[in-house]
Every structure is written in structure tokens, then in C-alpha cells.
Amino acid sequence: MKEDSIRKLYAELESKSDLEELPYKITQDESLSEKERIVLQKEWWILSDYATKCDHVHNQEEIVTYAKERVASTSNIFLLARYNHVLYNITKRGENCKAAITNYISIFKQYVVQNDKEIGYDAYLILNCIIQLSKRIRRDLSDVEELIIMFLKSGDITDNIKQWILDSIKYNYKNWKLKGLEFVPDLCIRMYSQAIDYGECKAILDIGVFFARRFNKELLPTFYEKMGDNEEKRIYEYDGRMENMVIPHYNQDTYKKMMRYYQLAGNEEKRRYATTKYNENKVGMHFFKFEEKRELPKEFVEGLRALFDTCDNSGPEQLLYFLSKHCALFMPSHSLLEEKWKEVENQKPFYMEHMTAVRSDINNNMVHVTHEENWKFQYMNVFFSNSIRWIIHIISSAIERKHLSFAKVRKILLQNTNFGEELIVYRNENQFSFRLFDKIDLSIKDFFTQYQKEMKGQCPDWRYVINNLTIQFEGILRDIIRLYNGETSKVMGSNKEDVVEMLLDDLLRTEACRDLYSDEDRDLFYYAFTNKGLNIRNNVAHGFYLPLDYTSFKAILVFLCVLRLVRYT
Predict the structure, then answer these.
(1) Using CA of residue 103, residue 106, residue 111, residue 112, what is the dihedral sign?
(2) pLDDT tens-digit profile of 216-230?
(3) Which residues are CB-neighbours of 280 under 8 A, at least 6 positions away?
(4) pTM
(5) Largest interatomic CA distance in the chain
(6) Could you tell me which residues come within 8 angstroms of residue 30 by beta carbon, excluding any fewer than 6 positions away?
């Protein structure tokens, strides 16, 4: 005779009307005998979701024997569905799968007929089981299709239940023939008109887009417009107080979605409205600034001072050569970046697992980046921001000692580097010659002019230096890659018929660029000019910089990047 605890549990299970798991605590009762505990653990395990999904079971024979006994002794369809499902999962016997499907269909009907809003998700899970198990044994789903169509067309079934049914079909679309569902897009529009809650409306519209793509593409603009309208429900009023500063950031993401949906809808008026609100919202966006002051390691400072002394006593040739090559005291090595990133990645910080990385551009637009890109940018930014003052000292001292000037830089680059080599270009059958230095001569000259102003305490104007050196950097890099027979053009267009010149990001990825320049050089180029870093090229090319954005920091950075392009002959 079975023990009282087991008999009592079985009696309670016979009245079970859901697929909820048993609480694990029933197996931990200290009053249980060992036999009772083993039986209860089996029952708990079989009725857990894990049992229907796991591929390996240690005590297979025991579980199979127990589940078969329970199938023979119960009439509860909820229990039968689970027992048969687990048996099929372990034994792969088709009759258990068919029995489980039959049980699940009965449960599905029962759930839908209840017409209880709270049971919608349960109906969704049951339908998933029916479809996925049927796919396993290639069972014809026509009877389920008829049942679903009947429920969807019924005026007695709540929209919430219908939404979950449609969501299950959408989730299992690869296993579903999608026959007889042409009415669903119109159904979704009707359901949306009755919905109030943002989340419910969004779920219905997502489903509507899915079915409209398959059955009625003419309705897609309607759905996208309604998706934009629905997003506006998420906009919060901002009172301007700093304690509520998160609101504009939240709204900005919402306005961005509205712009996208209205564009997909082809509604230009509403897209312009969303764009206007997006730009107006930027005014209220504020950011916390975190500062951390640390003393540099003694060894690091001593190394910098020794380097400073060496450069201070060097002639113009040696000094310019030094500035054009990688120095680990000014920029982190590529291997160090990779090593530090792996340390961070292995620690699996909370924010990396549960949050996406975004970066605000100069116009306060949020741009998604990878956690790796974001971390490397932050690391390089801190590193270079600390080392730039030493570079300033070196250049300032060299100018004061007359070791460095425009005339000397010009002479060295023209005589000793590829910047002085004569290049030929053809324009409309006419031949012209030029030197790479000719592209930057005036801006290099102005660099020294503005630098001397800053040394004297006057107000420098770095606009011409930064603008010209940034734009010419890309052109010079392209010329150099071309000189070394590297690729500088690519095929574009829908039919791959148009040939255009590569832009900076593409040039940096070419094999020739990797051969010509070190990993550290390219890290610096990415940091300075691309959206992986400061994005100076984009901001200059599109006129995003204001006069206040043209700083000595950027001028020196761009100057150093140009020097890194130099190849000594």
C-alpha cells in the first residue's frame, strides 16, 4: 500500500486543471520516508518544464517505468499530456507523441472556451507544444488549422486569446503552412482599434505586420503608421528638473522609433513631426560627467620624462621620425588593448549581459555600438587624454628650441619620405603631377602658426588645420594604397553595376592598409576618424562642428595621424 503522502498527492493531482509545476518543497518534507521522497522527486521532475526539453536523463528506465504506471492510473488530461510528452522525449515512441498531442488539443480547447484573459499565455504555450510535436512526427495539422480559424473568426472569443493564438502561429511560422489566414491582417486592425494598453497594441501591430507581409502588403503602410502613433503613447512630459533627466533620453529613443515607422509608412507629414520633436527633445538631454583622478605610476612617469629628455635633445629628423611612429607611452599597444578587453569580457559585468551599448554623437543622436567597441574607445580616450600633455610638451619644447618648424618639416617630408615623391594623375586626357605634401602644405604651415599663438597665450583658430588635414588624410591614404597596388574602389548598387571609391572605413579594412600600417596605427585612425571613436571625419565633412569644437587636442591628434601615413625612403 502506498504511503499516505503519496496517496494524498495523487488525489490532489487528479483535480489538477493546469500545467503548473509542483513546488520543489514537497520533496523536502522531513517527515517523508525515503521511498516517499523518491516517488515525489520523480513526480516533481516529470511535471517540470525541464523534463519535456532535456536530452539526457540519468535514471531513464526508472522514469519511463514510473510514467507508464501513471499514464495507466490517471484520467486527468493535464497529467496525461505531461506524462506522454516526457515519455516521448525519452523513448521517441510515436504513440506517446500522438497521445500527448491529443491531450494538448483537449487542453487547448478547454483554455480557449474558458475565454479568460489570464489564461491567454497558457493557451499560447499549449499551441506551441501541439505544433512542435506535430512537426516531430510529421502529423497533419489540418484539424488544428480548422480549430484555430474557427476560434479566430468567433465573436465569442476575446481578442486577448486571439492575440496569443496568432502570436504562437507567428512564433512557429516555419512549421506552419499559413493556410486560410488571409483575413488576419484585417482582424488585427479591428483588434487594434479596441485595444488601449501600449503593450497590447504593440503586440497586435507586430502580428499584423507579420501577416500583412504574407497576405496583404497594401496594408503595411497602415500598420507602420499605427505603430508610430502607438509609440507616442510612451512619451513622458519633462519638467526640466535634473532628478528627472532620464526622461528626455527615454523619449529620444521613442521619437527615433516613430521616425522610422512613419518613414516605412510613407507618411512624410508625421515623419517630419517626429523629427521635429526628436530635435526639440535634444535640448533637455543631459549627461553625468564622471571624473577620476589617479596618480600615474612612478615608473610610467619616469619613462615619459626619459622619453621627453631624449626628444628634447634630438634633431628635427629624429624628432619627426619619433612622432610618426608608434610609442606605447603615448598610445596603448594593440596587444594590450586585446588583453585588457579579454579581462573585462571574462569578468562578464552585469551591464554587458543585460544592457546594450550606445554612444551619443555630437548631435545627441544615440548610436548603437558593441560593448567591445565602446570599451576600447573609452580606454584609448583615457590613455590619449593623459599622454597628450606630454606630446604638447615635446612639440612646444622643440618649437622653442627651433628644432621643429614648418620649414624643417617641409624639407624632411619632401626629401626623406613618400610625401615628396612625384605622382602622376590623369584628368580628361591631361597629365598632371603632384606630391602628397602639396595636399597638406598650407594646413601644416597653419598648424605651426596656431601652435605658436597658443604658446604665447593668444587665442588660436584651429578650424583650417583640422578641416583640411582630416579631409586630406583620407585622400592621402587612398593615394598611398593605390601606389602599393591596393584596392581603392568597390562595386555598389542593387545590381552591382556601379563602381565608386572606397570611403575611409573601407580603406582601413583593405589588405594593403593592413600591410602598410601597424595594428596600433589603424587603432589610432579608427579612434580619431571613425564612429568607433571621435568620428572627426564625419563631423568635419558634414559641418557638425561649431567653432568651440575645434580644439588643440583634435589638431594635434589629426597632425599625428597624418604623420603616421609617412613612409620613410
Answers:
(1) positive
(2) 999 999 999 999 999
(3) none
(4) 0.62
(5) 106
(6) none
